[in-house]
Design brief:
Rossmann fold; 7-stranded mixed β-sheet; 6 helices; 33% helix; 15% strand; globular; Surfactin synthase thioesterase subunit; AB_hydrolase_fold; TEII; Thioesterase
Length: 259
């Protein structure tokens, strides 16, 4: 683990890397979700799994109130990550953070990723609302349990532990809250391609939601479907990393041909 950078989990710098893969985890998750990804990255790809505040070694830090504020903090603290070509990947909430990061880098620094990969997340046309008529900040613990059971990522016996709930539910509320107030109107602000990944059984993200990403770039937008639910990458890690790397190689070949 890189103890000098609170944002990065198990970061192994590759001095000769040609591209950097920056990954953002899902709501109420953590960067250890990407712990198996590095073995599928080639020698020329450096993995940077981003650890968000309020969990693990950052558990004493508050989650920012908005995704915009979170991204500003991340970019400000990590200018060095953008000194070589980079790809930004995000899953679910992480996809919103990934898009906002790409948007801010383009808007403020004129930087575009080689590729933006958004997984299990529709385009941010509208805020992602979990409840009708109330914020998740006001949801009861029983409501939170229903959400988590619906996503199917947390073992039910953990939800019976009060100690676990006392630690975990504030993270759930903070993460889902920044999602439910985040949106950006369609705009072709990005010049990079967007790769959209979706689980075939994911009831949270429709094909229409995925198609809407085409309105957020002036370049190509490709949609790929994998067998599985909302957390399909857990069963398709190698395929996804290979797909990302192949996408970069193809784009580089096109760029070279245009010269």
């Amino acid at each position: 683990m890189d103890e000098t950078n609170k944002w990065l989990f198990q970061y192994h710098k590759k001095p000769d890397a040609a591209v950097r893969l920056i990954c953002f985890h899902y709501a109420a998750g953590n960067a250890s979700w990407f712990s198996t990804w590095e073995k599928y990255c080639g020698d020329d790809t450096e993995l940077c799994a981003v650890q968000l505040p309020q969990r693990n070694r950052r558990r004493d830090e508050d989650m920012p109130d908005t995704i915009e504020e979170l991204v500003e903090d991340f970019i400000s603290d990590n200018q060095q990550l953008f000194d070589i070509p980079f790809i930004i990947f995000g899953h679910s909430m992480g996809a919103m953070i990934a898009y906002e990061t790409a948007f801010r880098l383009k808007e403020k620094y004129g930087l575009d990723p080689e590729l933006l990969v958004v997984s299990a997340c529709g385009a941010p046309v509208y805020p992602e609302v979990q409840f009708t008529g109330q914020s998740i900040l006001n949801a009861s613990d029983d409501d939170i349990k229903l959400i988590l059971n619906d996503y199917g990522q947390i073992e039910s016996n953990l939800l019976d532990s009060q100690d676990f709930c006392d630690y975990y539910f504030p993270i759930v509320r903070s993460d889902f809250h920044v999602c439910e107030i985040y949106s950006r109107k369609p705009c072709a602000a990005l010049d990079c391609g967007i790769l959209v990944l979706r689980g075939s059984f994911d009831s949270k993200v429709s094909e229409e939601d995925c198609e809407a990403w085409k309105n957020y770039t002036s370049s190509e937008c490709v949609i790929e479907k994998f067998v599985g639910g909302h957390f399909f990458p857990e069963d398709h890690t190698k395929e996804i990393v290979d797909l990302i790397c192949e996408g970069i190689k193809s784009r580089k070949a096109v760029k070279n041909a245009d010269r």
